[in-house]
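Paraquat-inducible membrane protein A
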Amino acid sequence: MSGLPRASDLGLVGCHVCGMVCRDVEAPDAACPRCGSSLHKRKTASYSRTWALLIAAFIFYIPANVLPIMRTVSVGDVDDNTILSGIIELWVKGSPDLAVIVFTASIVVPVLKFFALSLLLISAQRGSRWAQRQRSKLYRLVEFIGYWSMLDVFVVALLTALVQFGFFSQVEPLPGVVYFGLTVVITMLASMTFDPRLIWDGRDFDD
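Structure:
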């Protein structure tokens, strides 16, 4: 794979908005003929921006797990639950399906995104040519699951519907939801600022 020419070697550049492949134009105001977006060989300061957003997301993820994310009222009992205790609460109250959804959306997905983006950043910065095709697919996977990352926030809202079925008499969102929402949004921005083309550059391109 390392011997194959890159798009930049062929005088081509891909639009990062619509994906159209265009002729590389040296003019600083070069724009995509399809969507009008500015053309760049690589996203500006991709490494520093992605690292900054990823670290910020991790910082917000700490209070998202420590602070209560929802309050449940059932048979006179009032419980302020963190993400983990909320998962246990759902399981105990007879909602194992929702417990699995919350665990996947709030624990599994964020941790995997932190790991995946860190791996992509470190390997690209080191100019590694290891598993380039697989790392490119990993980035697409991170992009895909990003669309479903807000599922946990919506689950808190969905829990209010369970009141009608007698699982809980009342459900209220608490500050932990805000921090978790910020974590989700910032990790999505981090994946957007990372330039997957850097994966294929190896040591031949200096960001």
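The first helix runs from residue 46 to 66.
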